[in-house]
């Protein structure tokens, strides 16, 4: 299926590794132009170089999305470079789930800045540009804990639940402007963060992931592949998903208890 993404300009926060990088690769293969941001410039440039080697038109901006001016600058720089903005993937994030009593105010604040305020600010900055382009699409990358928080899941599950509310509220408000807003709820999917975790505990990545899948009880019996996630996000961003807005889709091999 042609996703009709050729020539579209898509912004991906946290696009240098893991799920964000997989989305960027999928978009480049569809002919979209992509702008990526992350804090670490070396990995960002390495990812961009491999995308350019596939013919991608890629802009990189070093930015910490938990800082207001940096995330706003990312959106503005992409607009300045490409002359339009059609879509935004609010993806940057990291795992943060601990016993409630051990999470300090500063850690709550940092999690909300990274996972909620970054999406708020990037969306606020991009919305006028979507309107100029005649419409747009936002995908908020969240986690299944947004709907089904477990024990020891704060602060992340709370930030993610706020992301769900943001998704629905914005979809209602922006629909009349041709702007669609959706969320993807991730279960456990291969990415840089799991590779680093496997190295930390001194296990081969493959067996570490198999163990995670077994331990979590994933019905499909394995963790997800980043490409499987990227396929869904690319579809949601594309005109082929033109009647889908205000929804949240689990990509979790059946793990979540909630539909
Ligand atoms: N993979 C999973 O199983 C899973 C499960 C649930 C939710 N998620 C969510 O999915 C998203 C992607 O996760 P992932 O697994 O792909 O993680 P990852 O492999 O660690 O990649 C995270 C990306 O985000 C960037 N990033 C992190 N903090 C940032 C910040 N403050 N400002 C800008 N960029 C930042 C990282 O680059 P720098 O470090 O260089 O900034 C990197 O490019 C996250 O929001 C994560 O919480 C993933």
Characterize this entry briefly.
The chain has 259 residues and is an alpha/beta fold.
CATH architectural arrangement of the largest domain: 3-Layer(aba) Sandwich
Can you count the beta strands? 9
Question: For the largest beta sheet, what order do the strands appear in spatially?
Answer: 3-2-1-4-6-8-9
State the domain count. 2
Mass-distribution shape: globular
Query: CATH superfamily membership of the largest domain, which one?
Result: NAD(P)-binding Rossmann-like Domain
Helix content: 40-55%
- Which distinct ligands sit in these coordinates? NADP nicotinamide-adenine-dinucleotide phosphate
Per DSSP, what share of the residues sits in E-state strands of 2 or more residues?
A: 15-25%
DSSP summary: helix tally: 8
Query: What is the averaged pLDDT score?
Result: 97
Radius of gyration: 17 Å
Multimeric state:
single chain
CATH fold-level name of the largest domain: Rossmann fold
Largest sheet geometry: 7 strands, parallel
CATH class of the largest domain: Alpha Beta
């Amino acid at each position: 299926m042609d996703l009709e993404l050729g020539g579209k300009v898509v912004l991906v926060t946290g696009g240098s590794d893991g799920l964000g990088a997989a989305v960027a690769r999928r978009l480049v293969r569809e002919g979209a132009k992509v702008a990526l941001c992350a804090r670490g410039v070396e990995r960002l440039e390495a990812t961009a170089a491999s995308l350019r080697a596939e013919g991608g038109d890629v802009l990189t901006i070093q930015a910490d999305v938990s800082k207001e001016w940096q995330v706003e600058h990312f959106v503005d720089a992409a607009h300045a470079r490409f002359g339009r903005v059609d879509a935004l993937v609010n993806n940057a994030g990291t795992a943060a789930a601990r016993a409630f009593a051990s999470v300090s105010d500063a850690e709550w604040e940092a999690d909300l800045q990274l996972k909620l305020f970054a999406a708020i600010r990037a969306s606020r900055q991009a919305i006028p540009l979507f309107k100029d382009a005649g419409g747009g699409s936002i995908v908020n990358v969240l986690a299944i804990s947004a709907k089904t928080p477990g024990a020891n899941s704060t602060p992340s599950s709370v930030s993610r639940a706020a992301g769900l509310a943001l998704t629905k509220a914005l979809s209602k408000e922006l629909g009349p402007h041709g702007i669609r807003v959706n969320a993807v709820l991730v279960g456990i999917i291969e990415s840089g963060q799991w590779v680093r975790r496997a190295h930390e505990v001194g296990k081969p990545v493959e067996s570490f992931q198999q163990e995670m899948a077994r331990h979590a009880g994933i019905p499909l019996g394995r963790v997800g592949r980043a490409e499987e996630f990227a396929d869904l996000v690319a579809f949601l961003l594309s005109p082929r998903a033109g009647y889908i807005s205000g929804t949240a889709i689990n990509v979790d091999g059946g793990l979540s208890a909630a539909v």
